[in-house]
Amino acid sequence: MKLEQLTSVLDFQGGSQPPKKDFESQPSKSNIRFLQIRDFKTDDKIVYIPISKKNRLCKKEDILIARYGASVGQILSGKEGAYNVALMKVIDKNELYKSRYLYYFFNSPYFQKNLLSRSERSAQAGFNKGDLSEIKIPVPSLQDQEKIVEKLDKVFENIELKFNVYKNKIELNKQMCKSKLNQIFNDELYKSGGIKLNDFVDLQKGKKPEISQQRKRNLPYLTAKYIRGESEPEYGIPDSKGIVLVNPKDYVIIMDGSNSGEVFTGINGILASTMGKIVLKQKINIKYLGYFLDFNKENFANTKTGSAIPHLSKEVFFNLRIPDITLKEQEKIVDKLDKFFINIDTNLKIIDKEKFLLNNLKKSILNKEFSYE
User: Fold this and answer.
1) Residue closest to 312 by CA, chosen among 278, 286, 281, 275
2) What is 314-338 written as a DSSP string?
3) pLDDT digit string (tens) for 26-45?
4) 3-state SS, residue 136
5) Average pLDDT for residues 57-63, to the nearest whole number?
6) Does domain 3-139 have CATH number 3.90.220.20?
7) Which residues are within 8 A (CB) of 197 and not within 5 positions of it... i.e. 6 or more apart?
8) What is the CA 11 to chain-centroid distance, rounded?
9) CA distance 58 to 35
10) What residues does each domain of the chain span?
11) Under CATH, which number does the domain 194-323 receive?
12) CA 212 vs CA 217, 220, 234, 325: distances in Å
């Protein structure tokens, strides 16, 4: 089959990036939904921006490609609004393709391998329109495309049904975790009463260091996006004035942004200004404290302050009441929860393995259909 240069038959348009001060939390006649990569996975953190000629718009049927970082190459669709600079829209200017055919083509190992090999040339793991010009694409008749799409839809429908089963299993395990934490900490608070968290801990706010391009001897700058695997790290100079260093044993909490209230541990680097390092004032089992903070995730979510940028206040954090129990009793609870969560982790690993096998099956099917090398 004859292959054409990708950019000769399709066009690609990058998104726009309005300032954060323009972000709004509620829809209105004067704004539009602002789409970021995360929004194609969940509607939990919807953001709106003012309607403007600068906005780059997409419809639900449009295909978008993630351009940067850990998400590069992800193929996204099914949402409408104004998309951001980390996304690039596919435009079928000559109406040569069925949208569903393009969706499968861009997800194929052939396209993904070619795209990733070009994005790796960039220091930031990204690509631009020029990189796409080096990739080829077939132009089958619309009738042939319909046959291919119909065949793939049937196969992938069964695979998606299995994915939904695994998704429900994961959700069930998450609910079990939540229920166990609620049971233990509510019982302990009822039996022993509570002491304000302020009596046990302090928060040390992070500060942005002097940024360096050299990784050697420098440390990653721990932003929420980096910790969550949504962006590549910047590297900070460890002796920058006023910075806060974090080691894998420390617990840190996001104080600003849409993820405020989330707690992390097991990380190493320089703490961002949007996060706080938890510093112990007196003896407390640090793992027990971690479980307690997990128990309070919903409290954090319900008490965020700030309009444009959500913020978890220190007052809310310090006023949380933690059960007034001894270190020995804390250790017993940790032991009980550790055993419970080991079983949960085992279940999730089995589910992840099954999902991995299904993903490989999808790649194999697409590779068979879209293989030109």
Assistant:
1) 275
2) HHHHHT-EEE---HHHHHHHHHHHH
3) 999 999 999 999 899 888 78
4) strand
5) 94
6) yes
7) 317, 318, 319, 320, 321, 322
8) 28
9) 9
10) 3-139, 194-323
11) 3.90.220.20
12) 10, 10, 8, 46
